[in-house]
Amino acid sequence: HYVLSERTMAAGKRAREADGGIQRGRRLKRKRAAETQYSFSGSGWVAGDDKERIRISKRLRRVSVAKPSVKIANVVAISDDRETTIGRMKSCSLYLDSTIARGMISRRHAKLIPTSSGYHMLVDTSKNGCYVNGTRRQQVELVPGDIIVFGGPTNKEEGDFAKQMKTEFAFKYEPVDAQVPTCGDGICELEAMYDRYGGKHIEEIKLVEQTENIPSFPSIVTNNNGNTIITR
Prior knowledge:
The chain is of the alpha+beta class and 232 residues long. The protein has three helices and 14 strands.
């Protein structure tokens, strides 16, 4: 038989208590992250993981045709006061992962940064990229109605177009109180977006948006052909 001294037993007890505290802290952090991700209020406010009241006016709503292979949020409120993070880490504001397309989403895939215009800047920090209205973008200021696909073909570079109807990670950026349209004639929002922007160069897309009077940012330039282009 081994006889443990009081000092040894006390040290072991402190180690177990410390380990238990760490585990409890991790569980609480995951719980709060989940509460933040899935809590949503149409009144324009959402409870954050620090129990503060956060102002929101925009949201990301999932518009993928494909069913998710893991549980992810269909609607996530976007803070007007701080960054919204997207990625494979459980602590991200929008947690994304897949059992089918493994490795498609990075641990810290992207972030949305509030701007003075009242919208959000999408910043891609991933390997497989972010596609806004079908075109891979590294950094772009979003406007309501934009559809973002997180992840995509590895052979695409900035400005390249890719149609991804089978993606699990397509989200629409829109006002928090926007009405959800009913897709008719078998055409969903994702397919309609690809039909509209399919294969167009970024400058062509901006001209289309100008013609259709879609809200954009007031920075105006003129190209060599004399055409006025509203940039954003």
